[in-house]
Amino acid sequence: MSTDTPGAGPEADKRRIPVFFLSDSTGLTAEAMGNALLVQFPDLKFDRTTIPFISNPEEAHQIVQEIDDLVEAGEGPLVFSTAVDRDIRSQLVECRAPIIDLFETHMEKVENALGVCSSSLRSQLHGVGNMDSYYRRMQAIEFAIEHDDGQSLRALEKADVILVAPSRCGKTPTSMFLALQHGLFVANYPLVDEDFETDHLPRPLKDLGPKLFGLISSPERLAAVREERRQGSRYASLQQVNFELSSARRLFQKNNIPVVDSSAKSVEEMSAIILQRLAHRTHH
């Protein structure tokens, strides 16, 4: 169970809106889809609560009663649900609060389009599901950890993607996301001052061009991130940051490495761009 609140304007200070993400599995889909809608209301404050693994209709009924108590108290809660089990879902929809059933909303259209009824199986999206896919993801995570920040160059040629960037441009979180969510073997390599002495790729990367993706950031953003880590250091100075970013851009351009700017993009957005470009390479 977790709580998170975005920034908001003066109007939102009057109250915080309780939001519930309900699921009979992990709740990750309810959170992702619900938050994608809530982010469109930046001037409101939300108290987010996730309740995963609702196992039976009795438990669902108890949760509904708790939410109905908030309705009775005038709290005005909002509910997002991705429950798959029909009996659990039938309890949840009795809730007196507005409920956005993200599963039921679209399933009938999908069934009509495919001409078959759904199986209503839980735990397929974020569960173990296909064992081959699960093991692939676990191996990808191990690979990403071993090859994080240039710690190991062993079997670097096995990487599907190698992220190259100056320090603190988002290499590690993007590597882990691609590994966990997509089962990609991702290494990341930090660029340091010595790598900028020429426009040639660092020796460990020189034969791996098609796997490389460059990450950059804005000077102000990168300096701020580094300042949090090493306050008042040369490493965090705007002069050093400008030098590294301009040198990295030149290196990427010289070696035809595609670039993703991390300064205003989430890990999910950066990963989507990388996946799109990988798919384009595969088909050409």
TrEMBL record:
Keywords: Kinase, Nucleotide-binding, Serine/threonine-protein kinase, Transferase. It catalyses: [pyruvate, water dikinase] + ADP = [pyruvate, water dikinase]-phosphate + AMP + H(+); [pyruvate, water dikinase]-phosphate + phosphate + H(+) = [pyruvate, water dikinase] + diphosphate. It is an enzyme of class 2 (transferase). ADP binds at A165, P166, S167, R168, C169, G170, K171, T172. Its EC number is 2.7.11.33, 2.7.4.28. Pfam families: Kinase-PPPase (PF03618). One of its GO terms (molecular function) is ATP binding. Transmembrane segments: none annotated. It comes from the Bacteria. Belongs to the pyruvate, phosphate/water dikinase regulatory protein family. PSRP subfamily. Bifunctional serine/threonine kinase and phosphorylase involved in the regulation of the phosphoenolpyruvate synthase (PEPS) by catalyzing its phosphorylation/dephosphorylation. This is Putative phosphoenolpyruvate synthase regulatory protein. It comes from Helcobacillus massiliensis.
